[in-house]
Amino acid sequence: MMRTRQYAQQLDQEDTLQHFRTEFYTPNNTIYFDGNSLGLLSKRAEQFVTEVMNDWKNHAIDGWTLGHHPWFYLAEKLGKMSTNLVGAKPEEVIITGSTTTNLHQLTASFYHPKGAKTKILADVLNFPSDIYALKSQLAQKGYDAHTHLIQVPSADENTLKSEDIIAYMTEEIALIVLPGVLYRSGQILDMQRLTKEAHKRGILIGFDLCHSIGAIPHSLSEWDVDFAFWCTYKHLNGGPGSVGGLYVNQKHFGKTPGLAGWFSSSKEKQFDMGHNLTPANHAGAYQIGTPHVLSMAPLLGALQMFEEAGIENIRKKSLQLTAYLMDLIESELAAYSFSIANPKQDDERGGHVLLLHPEAARICRALKANGIIPDFRNPNGIRIAPVALYNTFEEVWQMVHILKTIMEKESYKNYENKRGVIA
Ligand SMILES: *Cc1c(COP(=O)(O)O)cnc(C)c1O
């Protein structure tokens, strides 16, 4: 029963989020499972871009204070719209910068080596950009990354254990930066527990939410996390290079940001044009220069859809989709030496499934040739992200059956087993 296409169709009929699907553009009738790399464009996001362009057209300089979405307050407004996604107070969130620049800002602000506490703790599985940023921040302070960046190892190369991370929280650690959800295996780290353990040892801790925001709920304030940062072009569907976001716990308000600029100012003081910064008394202080208004505009529509759908409902459907996908892989593809490398339990599984196969690169090429868009990760990983707002159970069913045909007919052998420039 579960294996039939009719069953998938029935799940779609019961899906309370199904009406969002028609709001998205899916290129050329493809089945798009790459929303954790670049989310799809929605009609609403497109409309808000037009609105912001019209404000520019009609108001020019006065668009900063007039028009539909006065630009001077847009970062704060979008921050407020993001609070339910991260579980924070409105003043604790700001839309600004990018993942990597926000990490630079937050490290410059929260990494204060002192006495024996001089090292930064990260992990071996994080996205390269985060590690590059941490290494360069260490160099800025005159430390050698070889001795001062400690990376928690992974026993299976896909996941991390809380116990291991905690064991690395030694007296020498000043700051911890970890992902909320690992970009490759989709593992959710226990942010609440890790924060508690870090604080017991007097260590500040921040999380990269690139793969968790929009996929799983968070309670950053309640967990007492010190800071977090994320991009908005993956699960949040903000578009290529859309402006990122950050969270700073209110207990840290009122400090001067590590990297200051005039948009770090309190709004009332900013146009006094004095040479002594009065930082905003909220997360807005971690902005630097003029906001990238045109790259924020799509978020007005994209975040509105998350407000309407509710992150709890999105998470519920996402878990159902990935569970269904794993079940079908196990029942239909058992003969083809795929292994599922993401955690299988609900409380540890993020928004995507990681399939491993030695021929992964060319299997992905064959899938693409058959209208399925997966995501290849070097050297042997296929990430499949069925996204709650726009993917269907029937698409999951179709994907598994197309993949089964590719394996049966060995049609992947028509392609070279290597990655493209962007993979
Ligand atoms: C996507 C991603 C990034 C990308 O950083 P940008 O500054 O947005 O280019 C960084 N870190 C992680 C964990 C990511 O998943």
In summary, what is this structure?
It catalyses: L-kynurenine + H2O = anthranilate + L-alanine + H(+); 3-hydroxy-L-kynurenine + H2O = 3-hydroxyanthranilate + L-alanine + H(+). With 423 residues, the protein is α/β, with parallel strands linked by helices.
Describe this structure in words.
- The chain has 14 helices and 13 strands.
- By secondary structure, the protein is α/β, with parallel strands linked by helices.
- The chain folds into 2 domains: 131 residues, Aspartate Aminotransferase, domain 1, CATH 3.90.1150.10; 261 residues, Aspartate Aminotransferase, domain 2 (3-Layer(aba) Sandwich), CATH 3.40.640.
- The strands form 3 sheets. Strands 2-8-7-6-5-3-4 form a 7-stranded mixed sheet, sandwiched between helices.
- Helix 8 links the parallel strand 5 and strand 6.
- The longest helix has 22 residues.
- Bound molecules: pyridoxal-5'-phosphate.
- The site of pyridoxal-5'-phosphate has 13 residues, from helix 4 and helix 5.
- The site of pyridoxal-5'-phosphate (PLP) has 13 residues, from helix 4 and helix 5.
- It is an enzyme of class 3 (hydrolase).
CATH topology of the largest domain: Aspartate Aminotransferase, domain 2
Q: Average pLDDT, to the nearest integer?
A: 97
The ordered H/E elements are HEHHEHEHHEHEHEHEEHHHEEHEEEH
| Gross CATH architecture of the largest domain | 3-Layer(aba) Sandwich
The largest sheet has its strands arranged as: 2-8-7-6-5-3-4
From the alpha-carbon coordinates, what is the Rg to the nearest angstrom?
22 Å
- How far the N terminus sits from the C terminus, by CA atoms, comes to 36 Å
Pfam family, one: KYNU_C
Protein name: Kynureninase
Organism: Oceanobacillus profundus
Catalytic activity: L-kynurenine + H2O = anthranilate + L-alanine + H(+); 3-hydroxy-L-kynurenine + H2O = 3-hydroxyanthranilate + L-alanine + H(+)
